[in-house]
Backbone:
């Protein structure tokens, strides 16, 4: 059935205009003032509200098997919670175990995601290397719509990619027109610091940030950037949490390198005092990597977002309930790393971004949706409000307010990192593939309605990089003969 979103102001990355939006067959088919509702069409009154591209969360981990347990939020509950907060697409991660076939892992994740209620796609992690991994990367790009490969520079002894793996994988990615992404923390340093801190008798969650200081992130970000520079591959740094990592990205961008940075809503708004809470359950609830940082880093991250040196916002939604976090009661190294946020990302960013004047509405759209769509090559199908685009929309009520709590959220986890925060500006209605899936505070989702989104490789980046390399070659200079 067609759906007419009537009377709202359409806000995109470029403009804000009064327009109605007619959706049919899952797409936007008309965008104009005063569209007459076709016969039988459902009409949604968006008067006094903003109609924006649905949010894209480019970093989630639904039902991730990790640190001896499995994340409590699955693809059904997680994408539903996202829709309630205005997020209509996720990019999750396939993470093979070392020595596991990459294609086999990809197929497993595709199977788990079949119950998603919103659209989804996958970055694929490269956790080890041999010729089969190289061949699987090629198959994933050519046949399965994968255009991004992730590398964990931390989690030694588990999924960490060493420099040799980075070099091999980055080099292969170039030949495929794929982008590479990194979790930037020096895994060797983290391992050594964890051991040292634990032996000093610091066993509680306060040991977590001590073992992962900002320098550890800055070093890894810079290393990944320089490897990417030498190999001439575009790089995306996930969950940038520190001034040091941001500076490495900013420096590289100023030198003309194609480097992108993602920031989590949590890293923008929460500081490291949470780890000094004497209540184990509360402190452990915030254990994620990289950890929440001292306040100076939050100020730097906001500046990074405002200046455009950080382009996307995400959540790293990875949920573990209190009994799971309790695995590390006597040893912070065993607390499963991960926090939630998919339901709250858009509203906390609106409140603390647009509400404070740090971001304009257009910038809000850019950092919650459009930039992710462009970087991961699915624009304008996603991230835009335009004729022909997928009808993934959020109707945003700037006057609505709510107080966030684990008691009322839909996320399948017993903890909320934004507990007690009151926000002004919320999703009132969410539309996914032309269907009203969240309205009047209720979800109307259909299990399995989410679609897998193919992301083609990136000819434009590589053409540009190749041309730059040509220009940089000394021309017409003959070597003197001996
Ligand atoms: O603590 C985190 N971030 N857990 C999920 C895995 C990752 O590092 O992204
Ligand atoms: Zn990570
Ligand atoms: Zn992650």
Residues:
């Amino acid at each position: 059935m067609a759906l007419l979103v009537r009377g709202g102001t359409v806000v995109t990355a470029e403009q804000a205009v009064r327009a109605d939006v007619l959706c049919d067959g899952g797409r936007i088919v008309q965008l104009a003032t005063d569209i007459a509702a076709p016969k039988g069409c459902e009409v949604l009154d968006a008067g006094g509200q903003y109609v924006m591209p649905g949010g894209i969360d480019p970093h989630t981990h639904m039902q991730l098997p990790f640190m001896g347990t499995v994340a409590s939020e699955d693809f059904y509950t997680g994408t539903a919670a996202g829709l309630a907060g205005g997020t209509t697409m996720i990019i999750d991660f396939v993470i093979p175990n070392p020595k596991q076939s990459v294609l086999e892992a990809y197929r497993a994740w595709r199977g788990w995601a079949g119950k998603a209620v919103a659209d989804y796609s996958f970055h694929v992690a490269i956790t080890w290397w041999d010729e089969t991994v190289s061949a699987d990367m090629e198959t994933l790009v050519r046949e399965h719509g994968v255009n991004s490969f992730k590398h964990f520079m931390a989690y030694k002894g588990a999924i960490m990619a060493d420099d040799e793996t980075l070099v091999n994988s980055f080099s292969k990615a170039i030949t495929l027109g794929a982008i590479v992404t990194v979790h930037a923390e020096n895994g060797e340093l983290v391992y050594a610091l964890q051991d040292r801190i634990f032996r000093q008798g610091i066993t509680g969650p306060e040991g977590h940030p001590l073992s992962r200081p900002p320098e550890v992130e800055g070093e890894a970000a810079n290393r990944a950037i320089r490897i990417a520079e030498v190999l001439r591959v575009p790089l995306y740094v996930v969950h940038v949490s520190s001034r040091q990592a941001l500076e490495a990205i900013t420096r590289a961008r100023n030198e003309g390198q194609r480097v992108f940075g993602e920031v989590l809503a949590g890293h923008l708004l929460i500081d490291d005092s949470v780890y000094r809470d004497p209540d184990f359950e509360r402190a452990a609830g915030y254990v994620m990597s990289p950890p929440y940082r001292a306040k100076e880093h939050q100020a730097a991250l906001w500046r990074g977002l405002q200046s455009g040196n950080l382009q996307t916002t995400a959540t790293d939604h990875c949920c573990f309930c209190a009994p799971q976090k309790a695995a590390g009661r006597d040893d912070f190294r065993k607390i499963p790393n991960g926090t939630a946020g998919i339901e709250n990302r858009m509203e906390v960013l609106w409140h603390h971004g647009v509400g404070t004047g740090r971001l304009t509405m257009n910038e809000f759209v850019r950092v919650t949706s459009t930039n992710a769509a462009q970087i991961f090559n699915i624009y304008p199908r996603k991230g835009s409000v335009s004729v022909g685009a997928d009808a993934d929309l959020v109707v945003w009520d700037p006057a609505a307010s709510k107080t966030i709590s684990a008691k009322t959220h839909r996320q399948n986890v017993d903890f909320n990192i934004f507990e007690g925060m009151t926000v002004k500006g919320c999703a009132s209605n969410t539309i996914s593939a032309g269907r009203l899936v969240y309205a009047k505070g209720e979800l109307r989702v259909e299990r399995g309605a989410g679609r897998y989104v193919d992301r083609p490789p990136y000819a434009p980046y590589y053409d540009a990089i190749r041309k730059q390399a040509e220009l940089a070659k000394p021309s017409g200079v003959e070597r003197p003969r001996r």
Notes: The chain has a mean pLDDT of 96.
